[in-house]
Amino acid sequence: MLGIIQQFLGYDRARVLCVDGKVRLCRIPGKLKKRMWMREGDVVLVAPWEFQYDKRGDIIYRYNSSELQRLERMGLLEELKKLLEVE
User: Fold this and answer.
1) DSSP state string for 19-84
2) Each residue of 17-70: pLDDT tens digit?
3) By three-state DSSP, how is residue 11 classified?
4) Whole-model pTM above 0.90?
5) Separation CA 16–CA 3 (nearest Å)
6) 30, 64, 24: which is closest to 44 by C-alpha?
7) What is the rounded CA–CA span in Å between residue 17 and residue 84?
8) Fewest 10 Å CB contacts: which of 10, 13, 19, 81?
9) Are 9 and 25 in contact (CB under 8 A)?
10) What is the pLDDT at residue 31?
11) 63: left (phi over 0), alpha (psi -120 to 50) or beta
12) DSSP 86
């Protein structure tokens, strides 16, 4: 599920606005912490937890600029743009 990082909360956690309109508290796994630097406004791939599906998740991947252009051409970023306009 695609999402946009809204805020960093410390302790490797971030608040992410997901495509389904829900804001999830997501953690950044240890293998991504130092390999991929993340900032607010970055588009990320989120895996919701099975236990608290609506509230929590893991950040699996951060998209770079060339990948975002490809997602834009495929039309996958339109839903995220609509969510950002509503807020």
Assistant:
1) TTS-EEEEE--HHHHTTS---TT-EEEEEE-SSSTTTEEEEEEE--HHHHHHHHHHT-SHHHHHHH
2) 998 888 999 998 876 666 777 888 889 999 998 888 888 999 999 999 898 899
3) coil
4) no
5) 6
6) 64
7) 9
8) 10
9) yes
10) 67
11) beta
12) H
Who's near 57: CB < 8 A, 6+ residues apart?
Answer: 1, 16, 18, 24, 25, 26, 27, 46, 47, 48, 49
Among candidates 21, 56, 28, 22, which has minimal Cα distance to 42?
28
The residue length of the chain stands at 87
Alpha carbon distance 5, 15 (integer Å): 6
User: At 65, which amino acid appears?
Assistant: S
Tokens of 29: 């796994």
| Token pair in block for residue 14 | 């971030």
**pLDDT score of 56:** 93
Q: Which structure tokens are listed for 36?
A: 């991929």
